[in-house]
Write a structure and sequence with these properties.
Distance between the termini: 33 Å
Strand content: 15-25%
CATH superfamily of the largest domain: von Willebrand factor, type A domain
Largest sheet: 6 strands, mixed
Order of helices and strands: HHEHEEHEEHHEHEHEEHEH
Number of helices: 10
Number of strands: 10
Radius of gyration: 21 Å
């Protein structure tokens, strides 16, 4: 309670993202911010080199923008720093796919659930994209598409995304392969798909679906979320596990099972990473006890189809 005796009001997703991600991003080095901005805009411009682009207008200069894009004529006339924007730079269409299956509801004691962490990442990405006038959409899924909000660059669309993200509960099974197969025909234009998931699914079907997205001219990134308990397996002695997606209870000896579990988990993650690499999909693993702002910067600036970053 606060000094007045009233219970504090829960913070909205918008407030959490502003405090824990966007404010932190503002303190990141300019070079890193510039790299993030280039991923969200420059790397998704038209690949038809040599064709002219149409001037679309100006926007205010932001720290990290390429100084070559400043319009010095505008500065000379008005003492205002504006950046030239071309039609080709406004064509990014991104779709954020958030896994809300039952396993995403797990949290280590005192920590955020994987779904809470996914909400933070998705909301921060949406803020960054809309700020650049890029179009961003949202898919919430489990074994199927629960909700699909088509890409748009308006503030109204952003607020709707935040509302939907806040309201979604974790539940149901996992069927990422089926979800992406269902989504692919709806993606008629070249764009960016960011999948935020714990990847607790059949790797082979997921790999087939990723190849389908790439065939549909989508750049794809997979943010693999990992709870510290899943990584460390700190359970000792007799432990009873309760399935989060309809599985029966399981009683085990944590110490005896730990080596087998770690081997099986490592093999699963390795296979998902191999399939991502084969499809040209960048995969980055993030622990949910990490700083979401730092995780976002490292994920967006990582090199290679299957980055080994652990944040």
């Amino acid at each position: 309670m606060d000094p007045t005796g009233k219970s504090p009001q829960p913070r909205s997703l918008q407030q959490e993202v502003q405090e824990q991600v966007l404010t932190r991003l503002g303190k990141v080095a300019v070079a890193a911010r510039q790299a993030v901005e280039s991923v969200l805009a420059g790397s998704h411009r038209s690949v038809r080199r040599g064709l002219s682009v149409e001037f679309a207008g100006h926007r205010p200069y932001q720290p990290g923008d390429d100084l070559r894009s400043l319009d010095w004529v505008v500065w000379a006339r008005s003492d205002r720093y504006d950046v030239r924007v071309y039609e080709e730079e406004t064509r990014l269409r991104a779709t954020l796919v958030v896994d809300a299956s039952g396993s995403m509801g797990y949290a280590w004691p005192g920590g955020k659930t994987k779904l809470d962490y996914a909400r933070m990442l998705a909301a921060a990405l949406a803020f960054l994209m809309v700020r650049r006038s890029d179009a961003v959409g949202l898919v919430i899924c489990d074994t199927g598409v629960r909700m699909h909000l088509p890409p748009a660059s308006t503030m109204g669309n952003l607020l709707t995304m935040l509302t939907r993200l806040e309201a979604v509960p974790a539940g149901g099974g996992t069927g990422l392969g089926a979800v992406l197969e269902e989504l692919a025909p709806r993606l008629n234009r070249r764009g960016l798909v960011i999948l935020i998931t714990d990847a607790c699914d059949d790797p082979e079907r997921l790999g087939n679906a990723l190849r389908l997205l790439r065939h549909r001219r989508q750049d794809v990134r997979l943010f693999h979320l990992l709870d510290p308990d899943e990584d460390d397996f700190p359970f000792t002695g007799a432990v009873e596990f309760h399935g989060m997606e309809g599985e029966p209870k399981l009683r085990i000896d944590g110490d005896r099972v730990r080596p087998w579990y770690r081997q099986a988990r490592a093999a699963h993650v390795k296979r998902v990473a191999e399939l991502c690499h084969a499809s040209g999909v960048q995969m980055v693993t993030m622990r949910t006890d990490g700083d979401p702002a730092l995780a976002l910067v490292q994920a967006l600036t990582a090199q290679g189809p299957a980055a080994a970053n652990r944040t």
